[in-house]
Amino acid sequence: MGSGVRFEDYAAELLSRLGFRVIDRRVKVMSNGVEVGEVDLIAEDECGNRYSVEVKAGKVDVSGVRQAYTNAKLINARPLVLARGFSNDSSRALAEELGVRVIELEEAVVLKPDELRAAVESAIYDLIDELANALVALMSMRNADDALEAIAQCGDWGCVCGRLGLSGDECGRWISGLRGELGLKASSLRTLRAIVKLYMLIKGLHGANA
Fold first, then answer.
1. Residue 185 has what DSSP assignment?
2. Are 61 and 135 found together in one domain?
3. So what's the pLDDT on residue 1?
4. Beta-carbon neighbour count of residue 165 at 10 Å?
5. Model pTM?
6. What one-character-per-residue DSSP string does 79-125 give?
7. Are residues 17 and 102 in the same domain?
8. How far apart are CA 194 and CA 156, in angstroms?
9. Are residues 89 and 49 in the same domain?
């Protein structure tokens, strides 16, 4: 999450310089009540057109183009990718065929070193604040041991919800509720798992010293 979020700050600043207005970040993509993906940024151009923005630190490949197209369709927006170019001719051709706009970072305005440093520092402080708030919320939760254990051990939401006996719709609602309780918005399972493991470590150390 860390480096990805920091690069999103760079991308958001870049989009604003190119005439876009960033209106949301890390938006979950839902299908039939189940989370199927996450969009890095939502932005609007000067004409009010809404874009689903995928931010790639490297070059975008065929899979990345398809992901951008699918996520955009599911949230009724236009697909846009920020990347350091295309991985090959196939990814470029597919982007043209599907109407996925790609802004190549080499051709875009680059942040000055002091601006980039400020963006990185801001992202780190935001991350620490988010983690601290989530840990405090976890400490106040009751009867959540089974859920926390599932999150710590599973690699995907299907596994988590299966262990908790939740159906598709129930799973989607439970995930949304959990994120709301922890103040994590659209954070990924990987982020939640890291927070839960940190919480378990702190709890274990506290118990050992009690």
1. T
2. no
3. 42
4. 9
5. 0.51
6. EEEEESSBSSHHHHHHHHHHT-EEEEGGGS----HHHHHHHHHHHHH
7. yes
8. 13
9. yes
